[in-house]
Request: fold
Amino acid sequence: MKTFLETIRAIVTFLLVQTGLFQLSNVANDELIPRALLFSNPERSEAKLSPDGLYIAFLAPNDRGVQNIWMQQTNATVEPIQLTFDNGRGILDYHWTYKPNVLVFSQDNDGDENFMLFKLDVSDKQKLQPEAISAQPGVQAVVLAFSNQQMNKLIIGANDENPTYHSIYEFDLTTNQKQRIFTNSRFDVEDMLFDNDLNLRVAGQATDDGGKAYYRPSDSANRRSLTSSTSDWTLYTTVAAEDYEITKPILFSLDNNQIYWIWGPGSDLGRLAVHPFGRPNENRYIYSPQKTEISLSTMFIHPRDKTVLAVLEAYHKQEIKILNDTVRADFDYLQGMKTDGIPLISDTSEDFMTWLVVYNSDQYPLEYWLYDRRQRTLRFLFSKQPQLKGKSVARMHGVTVTARDGLLIPCYLSIPPTVRVIIRFIVSVVFVSQPS
Ligand SMILES: *[C@@H]1O[C@H](CO)[C@@H](O)[C@H](O)[C@H]1NC(C)=O
Ligand SMILES: *[C@@H]1O[C@H](CO)[C@@H](O)[C@H](O)[C@H]1NC(C)=O
Reply:
């Protein structure tokens, strides 16, 4: 006699063959999306709201198909204007700074990843002249930190002294002066955290056993001229190899006295923790994710208060977990306005009254909307790939598969829109018949 599992397998195989046939016989009725459309450059992407809430910048191709930065006013429907005029590889990354009307962007030479950084003042549309922040050949420069409490400053890393490690510079956005504040031959830039005054407070270093040791500048170190010498650094905490990927300092409280971490020890996924700076054994846990790891990029943080307002967990679908009730009504409104997508908050103005909302859905390309928190209104801005709008696309079905060792593997099943009915049937057969 067949075992239960063999029976199920037979039914599923049969149905899959059936769906295959079904798909073949129906494909003619279903408009195929041309591959060129599917894989074409997005029409507009990487939209970012200026901290004063007045402008939205985004990347879009120029008339030769090269990605450049464009900008439009948030309050008007006039045509966007082009801000950069690259005809090479295009612009891959940019940021608004907290200095009004100033953004920074990076460019490399034909994909060599030696990023040069430029500053662009957009207040006079007739005089758009990028100025170099770091443009030495063979040097990779990266933006590390901005702060609304130090509007004129920018922290960058550049591997100009040592190709392996980036030294740290403070750049003044008003005078264009650059000052080295850390001569680094020890720490990776990804493992550094700056506070709201743009002081380097924590830096991590891989340990011989595969873990990580985090340090803070010692009391005797000169904070304006740090070196890699051991006397400049005091051990903060060590993280074992099994925890280092889920342990990371991420944010300072407004007064710089408390530090938030994703804290791995004692959990599988890491937890959001906060403790007084330098006292990790006083950790207070704010959020324990249930299904997936979280990171700074999945957290919604108040731009002025630096409080953590919500966390996004993405298992089969993205789910927003609200941690602070002051934004609950906003999310209720945003979700209610468009129930077929998840409202992700991509940016907020510094006064927290204008939010750039991205709706993510398996039914349409990313859509950018502008939320006016004061008036509680929502306005459509643009779609990432409007050419795909209205095309019939396959839904994503979350499926969890148990591996042979008993661990769960989250998977997606996407099938042509025409076979939706059959798949519902399979899913119900498998779930309903599962032995307890
Ligand atoms: C939009 O904002 C700009 C900049 O603040 C302002 O000059 C302009 O008058 C505003 N336009 C409208 C239609 O409100
Ligand atoms: C909730 O967020 C508001 C706005 O940032 C803040 O004032 C308040 O302290 C936060 N509450 C908690 C419990 O963190």
Observations:
- Residues 16-29, 432-436 have pLDDT under 50 and may be disordered.
- The pocket of 2-acetamido-2-deoxy-beta-D-glucopyranose (ligand 2) is lined by residues 302, 305, 307, 324, 326 (CB under 6 Å).
- The longest strand covers residues 55-61.
- Residues 106 and 117 are 5 Å apart (CA to CA).
